[in-house]
Amino acid sequence: MNYWQELYDAWDSGRFAPVYHFYGDEEYIKKNALARLRSRLLVPGLEELNETILEGSVSAEDIIEAAETLPVMAPRRLVLVRDWAGLLQSERAKGEEDEKGKKKKLLKAYDVFAKWLDDPPPECTLVFYTRPGDKIDEYVKSRGKAAKKNVFELLAAKGKAVSFDHLDDRTLFVWIAQRFKAEGSSVDRIASEALVTAAGRDCARLNEEIMKLASLGDKVDEQLIRRVVTPTPEATVFEMVDDLTAGRLVAARQKTDLLLRNGDYPTQILYMITRQIRLLCLTRECLDAGTGQKGVMEAADTRSTWLADRLISQARPLSPATLRRLYEECTQAEYLCKSGRADHTAMLYRMLILLGTDLRKKQ
Fold first, then answer.
1. Which residues of the chain have pLDDT under 50?
2. Hey, where are the domains in the chain?
């Protein structure tokens, strides 16, 4: 399954919307979609003549002027607008206007585009491209009258807004299998899960690991992945909590030592541990409330049923009181480190002993 196959099929058959908005956290898939659109829309050899790239704080009038420029010896042109201030939250918008000025500017952009989108030129495709970390239109969404004039919703209604979110489990594992096949190799579901456990769910990182693994053989198994793929710090902390729960304090200490050797600061590791304990607190609350896997996915802000099941497996034997106490201990340890009242490395190892003792009791 491909979330965007309908979009790709339209481009392959020469059907393009006048305006697109690409946004979301899955940057690798988003970049590939833009590259595919560019290859289908622009005539080879004439790309530079028929593509305009704009950034940040350009005005709505500047964007429309670029979009209304006729293509050169080609049926269509492409205008790409990256991180346009009219679509970003106020803190990211450039310029020195006061808050009232910002609101007026955004409302003006809405009015200009609303009129222009009623009859956009058929020779141009306009793409707004928003990179990860930018909260779309939070400024106008959160402010009274401006919320009724929302540029994001306008583009979605009269153009096509395409959300590139992180893939859910089913789509992600299909994509992994397809990428291995494209590289002349193969992988089964167990090995795919091991890869995601180690490398995370970011497709750019996964793609790098897939190309590396595929070069080592025509069939990739779990053992090869564990030997070759360096786990992310988050994955290491997840396994560290598994070790602490099972009473494997030496193994947890070894993973901590590895993170420190790899350049992670003690405060970073402590933060990740605190975050993991917080997720377990939320998971325990979901189990007690009877919301199960669906509730855990919502609380942990993940689309992964597989990750939710792993959290449930960690949290189930632990009491709410134990988890709350450990979370308070972790936050206190972070505070002492940030305020300069404790040695960072010593505090990290102290917390390992404390967590190992309390988690093993499973109170």
1. 1, 89-100, 137-148, 363
2. 5-163, 174-228, 234-361
Q: Is the pTM of this model over 0.90?
A: no
Say if domain 5-163 classifies as CATH 1.10.3720.10: no
- The 10s digit of each residue's pLDDT in 248-301 is 899 999 999 999 999 999 999 999 999 999 999 999 999 999 999 999 999 998
Q: Does residue 19 contact residue 120 with C-beta atoms inside 8 Å? A: yes
Q: Within a 10 A sphere around the Cβ of 162, how many other Cβ atoms?
A: 18
Phi, psi of 304 (to 5 degrees): -95, 110
The structure tokens 């807004």 sit at: 161
Query: Could you tell me the sign of the dihedral formed by the alpha carbons of 165, 170, 301, 251, in that order?
Result: negative
Q: In terms of CATH architecture, what is 234-361?
A: Up-down Bundle (1.20)
**Residue 284 exposed, middle or buried by CB count within 10 Å (0-12, 13-18, 19+):** buried
